[in-house]
Design a protein that fits this description.
Helix 1 (20-32) packs across helix 5. The protein has a six-stranded antiparallel beta sheet with strand order 8-7-18-15-10-11. It folds into two domains: 7-119, 3-Layer(aba) Sandwich (Rossmann fold); 129-263, Sandwich (Tumour Suppressor Smad4), CATH 2.60.200. 18% of the residues lie in helices and 35% in strands. By secondary structure, the protein is an alpha+beta fold. The chain contains seven helices and 19 strands. Mean pLDDT is 89; it is low at 302-307.
């Protein structure tokens, strides 16, 4: 059967030779399926061989019709920020922790990857957030974020003051440790730890979650995906305020700055083997499938969820 993709980009968690076995397993599977392989530069340096074709990350977006990421969700977050604009679909091989985004485990590579290459897959579009820092009317920093945009005081455990607007309407002034603005993709990440809701990836919505607010009535707020969110930075004391995008890109903040968050111009298309289920991921990753005493739950065969 002819492969659904002709050239596949292969990216691994950077400088991680311990996952080389999975990288080689993916490469071998691609070669057996008669698919051209283009390695990201950093990944190519992990492999011996003179016949390896390599390109920059931007080059993968220009030349490939599928990109496979071997690593954890963090690796996929970085690739999403860098290449969502290229519109190339992405498949994740999970060599990290929870693996909400990277769905195929190493022991499934030989069984599930050929199915995807043959066109047997489902696709989900995950929108990103676009964060911009405005200082005295001038943009001084920006970054996309697949999971979340977090306004906080860096490593300082102190409260900061800020104001929140949504679509030009004032919402509140607040003192807290910070504010999390998350996409549905990011609702199972930092936002969840702060008490935010779990949102299905298909929702066109953004959640705003205060971090340890100085009032018991401040709760997570869900707004429409097309909303323009503005956070005005007030007094920050002796701390160094910043806005963090996916906990990987940090932008400096000063009193009087404004952080503008909107939906990013293009989504990231993630593909999964057929049968992928967001709720199954929640059951297995968040331990929903357990019950005190180990008794089976309704709908579970033998009381054990399939992972």
């Amino acid at each position: 059967m002819k492969a659904a993709f002709s050239k596949v980009g292969l990216v691994s968690r950077r400088d991680s030779p311990e996952i080389l076995d999975s990288v080689l397993a993916v490469r071998d599977c691609l070669v057996r399926s008669d698919v051209a392989v283009l390695f990201e530069d950093a990944t190519a340096r992990m492999i011996d061989g003179s016949s390896i074709q390599a390109a920059s990350r931007a080059g993968l977006g220009d030349e490939c019709d599928l990109i496979i990421v071997v690593g954890g969700d963090g690796s996929l977050l970085g690739l999403g920020r860098d290449l969502a604009h290229a519109g190339v679909p992405v498949l994740g091989i999970n060599r990290g922790g929870l693996g909400f985004l990277a769905d195929i485990s190493p022991d499934q590579i030989d069984a599930r990857l050929p199915e995807v290459l043959a066109g047997e897959f489902s696709a989900e579009d995950h929108f990103l957030l676009d964060a911009r820092v405005i200082r005295d009317g001038t943009e001084v920093g920006k970054s996309p974020a697949l999971n979340d945009v977090v306004v906080h005081l860096g490593g300082m455990s102190r409260m900061m003051e800020f104001s929140l607007w949504v679509d030009g309407q004032f919402v509140y002034d607040q003192r807290s440790d910070g504010l999390i603005i998350a996409s549905p993709t990011g609702s199972t990440a930092y936002s969840l730890s702060a008490g935010g809701p779990i949102m299905h990836p298909s929702l066109d919505a953004i959640v705003i979650v205060p971090m340890f607010p100085h009032t018991l009535t401040s709760r997570p707020l869900v707004v429409r995906g097309q909303s323009a969110i503005k956070v005005g930075i007030g007094e920050i004391g002796t701390g160094d305020a910043q806005v963090s995008c996916d906990s990987q890109v940090d932008l400096e903040l000063r009193p009087g700055d404004e952080v503008i968050i909107r939906k990013y111009k293009t989504p990231l298309r993630l593909i999964y083997p057929l049968g992928h289920s967001f709720f199954e991921s929640c059951r297995s990753k968040l331990d929903w499938a357990s019950r005190l005493g180990g008794r089976p739950l309704p709908g579970q065969a033998g009381g054990v969820s399939k992972s």
